[in-house]
Amino acid sequence: MTAEERKAKQEISKLRRMIEKHNQLYYLFTDPEISDYEYDQLLKRLAELEERYPQFKSKSSPTAEVGSDLRTAAEVIQHRVRMFSLENAYSLEAVEAFLERAARNTGQSFHPVTLELKIDGFSINLFYENGELQYATTRGDGYKGEVVTNNVRMIETIPQKIYYKDPVEVRGEIFLPLTEFLRINREREERGEKTFANPRNAAAGTIKVKDSQLVAERKLNSLIYSVGYFDKREIDTQCNLLKFLKELGFQISPYNRLANSFQEIKEYCLKWEEQRSKLGYEIDGVVIKINDLHIQRELGFTDKSPRWAVAYKFKAEEKSTRLLDVNFQVGRTGAVTPVAILEPVYIAGSTVSRATLHNEEEIVRLDLHYDDTVTLVKSGEIIPKILRVETEYRHPGAGKVRFPRNCPKCHTPLTREPDGVIRYCNNINCPAQLQRRIEHFVSRKAMDIEGLGEALIARFLEEGIISKLEDIYSLDYQKVMQLEKLGERSVYNLKQAIDKSVKQPFDRILYALGIRYVGDKTAKIIVEHFPDLESLLQAEVEDFLQVEEIGDKIASSLFDFLHNEESLQTIRALQKAGLSFRAEKKTVSDRLAGKSFLITGTLSRYTREEAEKKIEELGGRVISSVSKKLDYLIVGDKPGSKLQKAGKIPTVKIIDEDEFEQLLD
User: Fold this and answer.
1) What is the per-residue pLDDT for 380?
2) What does the pLDDT look like over 32-41, one tens digit per residue?
3) Is 118 a catalytic residue?
4) What CATH number has the domain bearing residue 300?
5) What is the pLDDT of residue 405?
6) Of 257, 285, 313, which one is at a domain's C-terminal end?
7) Closest among 507, 323, 329, 321 to 409, alpha carbons compared
């Protein structure tokens, strides 16, 4: 082996490792570190080296395989027809070269093409037989995909039944509308959880979660554009195929069109590159497909891509601006998030003056200094990101941005969870947290204090009527009456709602306290095992971990909250106000005593809360996950993944709503 060959072999090996790493980050962890363009440049360089040195080619090379989203031990199903990935073109010249190559290989001058917006989502394969959805799988490694059927059933735009009876694989993209993306990230930020970088990551993460109810709540959407296995030969063009799929009830993009010249292709691509920010979802390019399906079959495929389609990728819009300041914001759970304050700059359809910096590690990665010139990227994404710092423009002596060690509002020392990246202020009465904490405390699932909304809470804080959460129960109603636009009747109703809330059960009070990671269902589980405040205070982290549904994060967060002096003062003040920190077992009978239940899907005669209340009144217990401890799984309409999991445990009895009612009688 020559020195040149040895050097090439080393570079090929290094490139393969890098590409495999980025494949895992993109497909498995939905957390890419580099752009699609940078990834494609690595792949292009590898292909060039393998072409020049064929002795080092391998069937397992990333140039020959589609990136895989398959997780270890996941249930998989073989695709009937392989799912390929598209070749990317980063210029209109590359698109023109693709068209010329296709025409040359078929002896034609030009092939009409369909133009379809490239949704930046998550590829899905849907298999129907006898007109019913049999299963749904991810792209996987192209040959087989991970089963996500129960979660896909939660997506309203994917039909469960179609009139076409023959077997067919239908393919498309699952995506998250921008409004939902913003809502989810806002809620995650309030809970101190890591936010999604973009809607694609959120969609990919959602489609694989274990809780199908969460999928339904996140309102994923879909657009269909292709088929895999399909035996309807009279459909001879992509246009007719899309029309047929629409007739079956699938959602098809309304912006698809047929182009008969390169000029039409160019105009369409440039138009949507400019107008993509006006859509309610993310697109990152245009897919160009030869319309004639016979020509598609004639052209065939390379090792990993069709020769009859190409994806024109939009350029990631970048703009430089100046960093004016960094604000450190404190959320409801005490999570401190750094936000860059920027000199306003117009990018990708909107003027940007702020950009989240996520956490301390991001500030360190960027080596950020005050007054730095920074480059922003949107890539069509709704959330702007600081891509890099232009250090050549940095002023000598510029101050380094440092994450505070004390809360910027109340000066309490910040804490950081082991192995975590977020710093927290654990002062329950921190002014920055107080507004959102009170909003959470009075919300419907918590203390349910009707009439005490966001605007009124803000006025109470501003006027000094309340300064701590517990002040709700010692309001000076004479002062409240003096507030503008608050009539006597409104104040009376507010007092009634506050007085009524004193009778809320222990689990709702625990949830209302806003303990990080403790949701309403988790609060119920905690109270079931620790039925009063004293048993909670005596418990160690290890005691919490004995409860199957409680993990490390919840256990540590709960323990820290209960042993925080400010938290305890609030709890004692609430006790003094009459709130009960002791669970009352309200049972009508013990008919279901010792039996555990779980509900999946939507019941027709009860809300989930009503059904759970019935179970508890009869001495039964509602748990949060499928395990050997579960006795009954109640199955409603559109059940989630719990049904499949329960089916593998012989001791779990799977019952429908009618059988559930028989247990109640």
Assistant:
1) 45
2) 666 666 777 7
3) yes
4) 3.30.470.30
5) 94
6) 313
7) 329
